[in-house]
Design brief:
With about 260 residues, the chain is of the alpha+beta class. It has helices spanning about 70-85, 110-120, 140-150, 185-200, 225-250; strands at about 25, 40, 50, 60-65, 95-100, 130-135, 150, 155, 160-165, 165-170, 175-180, 210-215, 215, 220-225. The protein has a five-stranded mixed β-sheet, with helices on both faces. The chain has a three-stranded antiparallel β-sheet with strand order 8-9-12, with no helix packed on it.
């Protein structure tokens, strides 16, 4: 279980006096908002599609991310797949997954590679027809992001996007029904969200967990800020879990707890 972390709103200006990109990053909950179905994108095969192609009969799990994201985006996808593996509903048969890149410069080849890796991890028959990885123009990306309250910023100084982590649940009528924040997701919650969304039920606001995908240094291969805190917290929890297992295994059932009786 990943340690839950909250962040306070970023200051309007960084210490160097320049505007802080994080000031404009948020994941605003816009429940019952209508997603524009006329937006055009390209799928992982390079075919021009409309967002409306994925709606009408099934609920949709939407992830806004980018495929060359150095850290958090892949963790969100992994967290989603890990949760869906414990859900009896199947991508393609019962729901759709739509991943839209927020970087207009990313290519269909990048999208295809991420789809292949995701399908391999998910490992269920028919999932290819239910998981879609799209690229698009800045206009289409921004209109979709605005509709679901996904506010992100491109920082040209480090060529990265500052954005929050999470998933958006959409009804078959393309209305926002629920948000799931963070990088790990409860399978029961995700299943309930899919069932409710399939019935066009709109959920209630949830506590926002704003994890930022930001400040990865490709030169040193290190992460800074909150991402580094998440990694360290995860490592600590993993070590504690291993120690706990060792203690449990060392305590054999029926073993005497007091001193051994003396002979004679």
């Amino acid at each position: 279980m990943l340690l839950a972390l909250m962040i306070t709103p970023a200051a309007a200006f960084a210490q160097n006096g320049k505007p802080d990109p994080l000031h404009d990053v948020s994941f605003e909950q816009r429940l019952d908002a209508q997603v524009p179905l006329d937006l055009t994108f390209k799928d992982e095969q390079g075919q021009v599609v409309q967002l409306g192609d994925y709606f009408g009969k099934q609920p949709v799990i939407l992830q806004m991310s980018y495929y060359e994201c150095p850290m958090l985006c892949s963790l969100v996808r992994k967290g989603m797949v890990d949760a869906l593996e414990s859900v009896t509903l199947n991508a393609g048969a019962d729901f759709q997954v739509v991943n839209v890149s927020i970087d207009p410069l990313e290519t269909t080849m990048m999208a295809a590679n991420v789809k292949a890796a995701t399908l391999s991890s998910y490992g269920r028959d028919g999932a290819a027809a239910g998981m879609h990885f799209l690229t698009g123009t800045q206009d289409s990306i921004d209109r979709l992001a605005e509709a679901v309250g996904f506010h992100y910023v491109y920082d040209e100084t480090i060529d990265q996007y500052a954005h929050a982590a999470g998933l958006v649940m959409l009804t078959p009528k393309a209305k926002v029904s629920r948000y799931f924040f963070g990088v790990t997701f409860n399978p029961s919650d995700l299943r309930l969200g899919l069932v409710e969304s399939s019935e066009n039920t709109i959920g209630s606001p949830t506590d926002q967990l704003l994890l930022l995908c930001y400040h990865y240094d490709p030169q040193t291969g290190t992460y800074t800020g909150l991402v580094m805190t998440i990694i360290r917290a995860t490592g600590v929890l993993t070590v504690l879990g291993i120690i706990g297992m060792i203690v449990l295994l060392a305590r054999k059932p029926g073993a005497p707890r007091g001193p051994m009786p003396q002979a004679g």
